[in-house]
Structures are given as C-alpha cells and as structure tokens.
Amino acid sequence: MLKKRPLINNNANPSIFNGIHSAFLFYMQTLTKLFSAFILLLSISHTSVAQNTCIPENQWFVPKTGNIFPFKDYFSHIPSQGIILLGEHHENRAHHQWQLDVLAAMHKKQPNMVIGLEMFPQYLQNVLDEWIDGKIDKEAFIQRSQWDEIWAYDFEDYFPLFKFAQSKHIPLIAINVQKALLQMSRQVGWKNIPVDHRQGITDPAQPSKNYIRQLAVSFRRHFDPNTKVDKQAFSRFVEQQLLWDRAMAQGLAKNKTKYPLIIGLLGSWHIINGFGVPHQLRDLGQNEIVSFVPWDEHLDCQSISDQFADAIYGPTNQ
C-alpha cells in the first residue's frame, strides 16, 4: 500500500521529483488534444448499441483482407514468437472459453510460453507462482489473490484458464497496476506523483487523437446527458487510462527476454485499434505484436476497420 504523506514538500530532496519535469512536458503536449476531445465529449449523448452479429460464429475474420477462417485453420497464420494479445469482455463466458482454446492450441505450437493477466496487480505475483507450483488450492487462490475485492468478476469463468496453466506448468504473470496508484493519478494527476510512488512505471507514450476520441465516448457514458462535465476530470481520466495501458505493457514487455511467446489476456478496449496496450508496447520497443478480439454484442459492426485487430473471432453466443 502507498504510504500517506504530502505529495509536495518544499524541504524534500530534489531527487524525489526526478522525472516529473518530463511528465509535465508530456502533459502539456497532450493538453491541446485533450481539450479538443473534451469539446467533443460535451456533444456526445448516451446511445444504446445495437446487438450486432456481423462476425460468423466459430470463425476468424481478418479485417485487412476480408478473409474468413474456421477456428483450427487460422493457427498456421499465428506466429509462435512475440506478444499475442487476447481480448475479452469480462462477463462473457464464451470469450474465456475462446481464450482457453487459443492457449491450448498455441501451447502445442510453442510450449515455452507465459501468460500475462490483467486480473492481477503485479504485487500478487507470488500468489500466481504458488498456484502454478501447486502449493495452494482453489479456495486459497481466491482468498490470497483478493479476487472478490480486486477483480470481482465470476471466478468460475476464469478458473479453467488458471487450471490449464497449472496443468501445463505455464507461468502466469500479474501485469496490472495497483488500484491505489490509479486512484492517485485520477485525484492529483500523473505529473504530481513522486517517482518513488510510481511503482516503476514510466511515462506513457502520447495517445493518438483517435484514442482520445474513443476515451471521450467512454468517459461521457459515465454521466447523465444533462450533467456538466469537468474538463480536468476528463484530463485525469485519460491519464489514468494511459497509466493502466502502460503498466500492462511494461508487465508484458519485461518478460520478452525470458520467453519467446507471451500471451496477454486483457479487456478488449485495451487492444482495439491498437490504441491502448499495443501502442505502449511499440513505444517500449516491442514490435512483434498480434492482437485478437472476440466479438461481442456491445460492439458495432460499423466500427470495424483494418486497424481494429489482426483478427476478430465470432464466439458461439454472440
């Protein structure tokens, strides 16, 4: 847990604030983009998304070519090295079954792999290690990982993934950021957080205008259409999302020298269009990245572009 203390101390050693200057420059460079997106989000109203089912069930659709592949036939196109990102809508059980099927197929191609998990902040790595080594049972795993407090989605949807990794002795890697740091970023701003409180996370790469636009839509959905939105609140929201993306990207990238194949399981909105984690991975020098997104009724067929993902999968219960 972060120790509570004043964020700014005029008598403190100046070395505490190393890196804040670069963070401030990052903040100023993106301020114009944020302001433009803030103006945009003021005009965004709540709309319900139609239940689109444009991806064939049990098929892969490749946006760049328009090609469609049966589930098993596409694996010859998937590299056995690099970083593979598998998206999910957390409450969709079919997405987790798809992830499990992909993990099993990829393990046959490349047994020397590791699985990165958004569900666990990095300080819980020892719990994942104990699970893989068979030192704790299911109930202890749930309790010690603080599942119900930190993640809170249905554990049974995820358990087959964890059990598969244990049975194959595939390392599980905690890649998420501690909630306390996300909350601090939203409260005071990333540039005001001392370096020794940043948990080793470096300044995020600047977001694209399109990512800020996407975040503006997400941000506006949290409010009633008649609610006046605070500009600073949106700016802090963007900073928090970038911090989240950066932390997971670093969690994946730091294992690249140890394992030829890393598969990350994380929310689809951190992957779609290459804006979130893929963008931060490229900034960290990782260019062998493949992104796959399972289709969901909350997505819009009209949003599919060449950059949406390397492939989109149609689960059975779209």
SSE topology sketch:
Layout: H1 20-42, E1 59-61, E2 68-70, E3 82-86, H2 93-109, E4 113-121, H3 125-132, H4 138-144, H5 147-150, H6 155-168, E5 172-176, H7 179-188, H8 209-220, H9 231-253, E6 261-265, H10 277-283, E7 289-294, E8 311-313
Parallel strand pairs: 3-6, 3-7, 4-5, 4-6, 7-8
Antiparallel strand pairs: 1-2, 1-8
Helix pairs in contact: 1-8, 1-9, 2-6, 7-9, 8-9, 9-10
Please tell me about this protein's structure:
With 318 residues, the chain is an alpha/beta fold. It folds into two domains: 19-44 and 179-239, no CATH class; 63-174 and 246-313, 3-Layer(aba) Sandwich (Rossmann fold). Helices cover 39% and strands 12% of the residues. It has helices at 20-42, 93-109, 125-132, 138-144, 147-150, 155-168, 179-188, 209-220, 231-253, 277-283; strands spanning 59-61, 68-70, 82-86, 113-121, 172-176, 261-265, 289-294, 311-313. Strand 1 and strand 2 form a beta hairpin.
Summary keywords:
single chain; 318 residues; alpha/beta; Rossmann fold; 2 domains; 10 helices; 12% strand; disordered N terminus
Can you tell me the overall shape?
Answer: globular
What is the CA–CA distance across the termini?
40 Å
Number of helices: 10
Main structural class: alpha/beta
CATH architecture of the largest domain: 3-Layer(aba) Sandwich
User: Strand order of the main beta sheet, please?
Assistant: 2-1-8-7-3-6-4-5
Please give the CATH class of the largest domain: Alpha Beta
The helix-strand sequence is HEEEHEHHHHEHHHEHEE
